[in-house]
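Dear support,

I submitted the protein below through the web form. The confirmation email said the job was done, but the results page showed an empty box. After a refresh the structure appeared. I'm attaching both so you can tell me whether what I see now is the final result or a partial one.
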Amino acid sequence: MKTAKYKIIYLFVIGLMITGLSSCLDDLNTIPLDEDELVSDVVFGSEIGPYQELLAKIYAGLAISGNSAGDGDPDVAGVDGGSQASFLRGLWNLQQLPTDEAHCAWNDVGLPDLNSISWTSSNVFIKGFYYRLYYQINLANALLRETTEEQLNARGVSASDQTQINYFRAEARFHRALSYYYLLDMFRNVPFVNEDSPVGSTLPPQIQGADLFDYIESELLAIETELLDPFVGYNPNYYGRVHKAANWALLSRLYLNAETYSGNAKYTESITYSNKVLNENFSLDPVYANIFTSDNHISPEMILPVRYEGAETQTWGGMTFLLSAMEPSDMQEEVNAVGAWQGNRARSSILRTFEKENLHENDSRFDMVYVDKTANIEIEDPSLFTDNGIPVVKYYNRNSDGSLPASNIAYTDFPLFRLGEIYLNYAEAVLRGGTGGDQATALQLINELRERAYHQAPYSITAGELNLDFILDERGREFFFEGQRRSDLIRFNKFTGSSYIWPWKGNVKDGRSVADHFKVYPIPADDLGANNNLVQNTGY
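What the results page shows now:
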């Protein structure tokens, strides 16, 4: 994957990242750097290639953990490249394991604490995801510093190439906003750096959650007209790149959660940006399972994926993790994963979410919940995998027709944003009082989603059945194991406290209430110790 030029760019970016998190400085200083490679004019000139490759590095950071397949040469020092520095694996662990859906049987230090909502600021999985997000932010900052109009003109970059680089800049700003979105959602009050932050050992200031919300919002609105136009389906030149509809989808999600993040409801704005996506040519995939197969790049529902391309994106994190860590060993050949790792199972509460509908056996989404492959739907022993909890197999490294991809290395893309979410965002925002939408359309969208899910009628609900409790359950049925559940439970005030109890919540088999400070993760202890500008989140 790595050319000599790419290595130079990578080292240059690492040098620029010294402006980032202070606690990373010692790790970064251990990397041998050739001073000549850190001179921007040596790396960036009049050709578009280096700028394009730096953008590619930002995209790659969502899929793999380093600069070579198999998590070699990891980006984030001090944590394991495959299990702790992976964006997608980190997102899934932090969004799924503390909820009513998933449980990991492994006893790696830090994982049991995620299962039971009992983590501390020293949790290495929290730390790994936190630093992955800042690595992405600093990559984006580096690209933006090196692509100002003045610099491009001084280097003799042609007008046509500058037009393309302006798209790169907008995409980099989106990626930075996306990383800050996850920091806002999970950590709330965090260090803040952008392309204007001083390069050197200056400690970054802490930004409060409400102000970070405003910053993310302003960035996404500013680039709205500067991104590529939306495109549907697979185009090898553009598939996987950020476009206007991806930006609108993130705004739809951001505004839906605005009251949680800043105390100010913005459901009308969520409807506005949901409508922008709905007015494009995306459509629900006719077969729910096809959203999660190795040829899901052709799905008309995909808005923004994290791409996986076999050996070119080989990793122990990402989709390899989502394929291998879930499946029973007797399904390995059927799923076509690299192995059955015997790690993650579902809690019985995921079954209860489906059982709330008497016709759940008719729901194709429930086909992915293999109750018949366990002797006990309850997790009797948190450290056991076999016959302990419910197997869930949602992701398949096979094509939608059952054929195999080029190899058993992951080709299945992860749907970071897909149309089904926009349907449910719209309906929820209407029910919460947002304007610009109506309950009749909300009901229509929900029933279209259910028509796709169910093998046969009946599947429709009535207007009287469409309420917020139904929306939370339907999101559980539609998005289980897709890395959204924690945020949903928090938005519905079901994550902490005693209003909703599930098995092993609070490290008790039958579940118990947990304190409200667990709604946000702690700032990692080592970053807090290295930066005296930071104040730890309440309760830690």
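Response: this is the final, complete result; the empty box was a page-load delay. The domain at 4-229+240-253+522-530 is CATH 1.25.40.390 (Serine Threonine Protein Phosphatase 5, Tetratricopeptide repeat).
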